[in-house]
Amino acid sequence: MKYIIAIGIFQALAAAVLLWRSRVRNQADGLLIALLTCIGIHLSIKFFIYTVVTDFEVLNMMNTFIGFCYLPLLYLYTIKTIRPNFIPASQWYVFVPFAIGTIAFFSVLSVLITSLEAGHNILYWYNTISLWTLIPLDVILACWIIYYANKNLDKQSNEKKLITQIAYLFLITSILSITFILLKPFGFTYNYIARSIIYTFLIVICIRIITYRYSAAIYVQKENLELNPMVADIPNYHPIRQIDNFNQQSTNAMSLAETGKEPESKVIPMLSSLIFPEKRRELLSMDEMMSILLKLETAMTTQGYYKDSELTLDKLATLTKHNKYHISETLNHFLHKPFYTFVNEYRIQHVKDRIECLSKKDIEINMLTLAYDAGFNSKSSFNRYFKEIVGLTPTAYFKTIAQEIEMAL
Fold first, then answer.
1. How far is CA 57 from the centre of its chain?
2. Which of 65, 74, 121, 176 is 20 to 30 A from 342, comparing alpha carbons?
């Protein structure tokens, strides 16, 4: 079992770090990071118990208190995903069982240290009460989360899939726990089998969150015009304008194709490749692209390369000592993002962080100054990318943050 726990600790910490270092995090992602951190702490405590403790009673009955915060965190994440203006702290009471469980856990631990025999009696009642409190709460919250997510989120959205899959895993865990408890009188070993399943499910949850943010498989291609790298990096490219050109020249292009002559306009072959895309041969493996992506994110976060308003692909390749074609390969086909979108997402996140920081300190905000500090070289590009990435104009976003701060006071 210790091997399962060790793997779980690594997966939880890796997932938390990857999500924390993600290019652009929305406000709800902080709750996912908290969930992953709790999983890591939970498994670390269990690893310590199974490695150091020799008392049989403690090994078999020492439930940890952290299990009480898993479903509440997922519950808050669900609401925050559906209602971005929701303040998780407003429903602090969902963590009351967690607080009580924490006090009880350390109280039992103190008694065990003082008197092992007396501690065994208290441990039995702690284990029984915590188990039969946790299971019903998890079942209720998991069912509510699944219902609420299905009702309010789009069926094809990645957030809905993530939320419902995690909720189902916790629900299955609770059902299996009840089953093993009922079968215990017939000779089934509840503790070892049930705990192994629970720890395995926690590993699956960590992996699922990683794929939610980093696996290329979760990206849904909305339109070839948005995702094809042949046109994504063309300066001043405007898809609607190019489509209009294509419509105006389509008859002429078809006749040229039939005669075998080369089209006069370079727009036609580009758009034909969009409509009839060739199957692409990847130059890099998924692991190699993941490695490059992590190094790029580390460099952008720690060195702040995005603040350079003249940053180009060639310049970033020189700074990070990576082949520019490998960087382009990673961004276009692993993230499905062109280079400038990748950079501008960092710039927008920088502006968002400054808006939140200055708003909390009640300092006057100059949006244009923030935009220039983040690396934008024009007001129009800043406003366009901010609306595209955040979904709100800079002014509307500032008002939203101000309202949240005012409600929290």
1. 38
2. 74
Domain that holds residue 84: 2-218
Instruction: For 118-151, write each residue's pLDDT tens digit.
Output: 778 888 888 888 888 988 999 999 999 999 988 8
State percent of the chain over pLDDT 90.
Answer: 16
Per-residue pLDDT tens over the stretch 222-276: 333 343 444 344 444 444 344 344 344 444 444 444 444 444 444 444 444 433 4
Residues 54 and 182 both lie in one domain: yes
The total domain count for the chain is 3
Q: Does the predicted model carry a pTM greater than 0.70?
A: no
Residue 398 lies in a domain: yes
96 lies in the same domain as 138: yes
- 42 and 190 part of one domain: yes
Residues 80 and 211 in one domain: yes
Examine the domain organization and report whether 266 and 329 are in the same domain. Answer: no
SS (H, E, C) the chain: CHHHHHHHHHHHHHHHHHHHCCCCCCCCHHHHHHHHHHHHHHHHHHHHHHHHCCCHHHHHHCCCCHHHHHHHHHHHHHHHHHCCCCCHHHHHHHHHHHHHHHHHHHHHHHHHHHCHHHHHHHHHHHHHHHHHHHHHHHHHHHHHHHHHHHHHCCCCCHHHHHHHHHHHHHHHHHHHHHHHHHHHHHCCCHHHHHHHHHHHHHHHHHHHHHHHHHCHHHCCCCCHHHHCHHHHCCCCCCHHHHHHHHHHHHHHHHHHHHHCCCCCCCHHHHHHHHHCCCCCCCCCCHHHHHHHHHHHHHHHHHHCHHHCCCCCHHHHHHHHCCCHHHHHHHHHHCCCCCHHHHHHHHHHHHHHHHHHHHHHCCCCCCHHHHHHHHCCCCHHHHHHHHHHHHCCCHHHHHHHHHHHHHHHC
